[in-house]
Amino acid sequence: MPEFLTTKELADLLRIGERKAYDLASSGEVPCVRAMGKLLFPRAEVIAWLNASRSGPQVAEPPLPPIVAGSHDPLLDWALRESGSGLATYYDGSFDGLNRLKDRTAQAAALHIHEDGGFNLGALRGALGEAPVVLYEVAHRQRGLLLAPGVSDISGFADLKGRRVILRQESAASQRLFDGQLEAHGLTRADLDALPTCARTEEELAIALHDGKAEAGFGLGALAGLYDLGFCPTHAERLDLAIWRRTYFDEPMLKLLAFVQSDRFAARAAEFGGYDLSHLGTIHHNGASG
To answer: Nearest 5°: phi and psi at 60?
Structure first.
């Protein structure tokens, strides 16, 4: 369904006439925006407005802890701090984030799971079905082989045989993608000289390479310049926030989402490099929204 409804689509949703839909907008009863002289109605906000109008007995759900879980992303991590949202973080990979959403021990999870024909949606539905979760696009970003300073003879996965490589934890989507790429190039982890400990965030991986603890790792291009690393891009991926819809309009989440739409966020993304914000804010899924 579209992110924004026209007056006719709103009328169809509410099963009222278009004149009545105009009256609701004019009186301020229904959430709406005006763009180029046209009335548009944010679908997610309309659904929240309808839910708030529900009568009859309702079972109160316990509050969700103000935590963003899932994958670590340096740009999103910076935004969480700078926005003043007050949201805490628990980064242990996209798949751990899905589990925490399912267990209701987080309000949101950052995801970048590669799927046939897209990203994140199949894994989200597999974990939570059609639960009321919004999938909100943050950015497209570059991923590939990060190389320690001075390493210049690695240009792809086939060159990793026998090299010192730092891995990520099993719950990280990047590690599962990396394992798949090794297999596609006729390699396994046994063919690598892998460090005994893994990097639990993107930044830990970059720091380990900068310090010369490993020669290569599968990480984000955005960190190459910051840590003086070489970078061989191999994949483009989409970073989304999966957010429980009942927290989507709470003040902490609204602060974060407003900040990621700001000029400061765009400027910071440009400083990092490797990010594309062209479709920032696109809603790719709005579970159980009717």
So the answer is: -70, 130
Give pLDDT, residue 57.
55
CA 288: distance to chain centroid?
20
CB-neighbour burial class of residue 52 (10 A; exposed 0-12, middle 13-18, buried 19+) = exposed
**3-state helix/strand/coil string of the chain:** CCCEECHHHHHHHHCCCHHHHHHHHHCCCCCCEEECCEEEEEHHHHHHHHHHCCCCCCCCCCCCCCEEEECCCHHHHHHHHHCCCCCEEEECCHHHHHHHHHCCCCCEEEECCEECCEECHHHHHHHHCCCCEEEEEEEEEEEEEEECCCCCCCCCHHHHCCCEEECECCCCHHHHHHHHHHHHCCCCHHHCEECCCCECCHHHHHHHHHCCCCCEEEEEHHHCCCCCCEEEEEEEEEEEEEEEHHHHCCHHHHHHHHHHCCHHHHHHHHHHCCEECCCCCCEEEECCCC
Give the phi and the psi of residue 214 in degrees, each rounded to 5.
-145, 165
Give the pLDDT confidence score for residue 280 in this predicted structure. 96
Residue with tokens 């602060």: 255
Statement: residue 1 has pLDDT above 50: no
What's the distance, CA 86 to chain centroid?
18
Burial 11-24 (b: 16+ CB within 10 A, else e): bebbeeeeeebeeb
Is the pLDDT assigned to residue 290 strictly greater than 50?
A: no
The closest alpha carbon to 41, from 15, 54, 22, 19, belongs to: 22
Q: Residue 258 is which amino acid? A: A
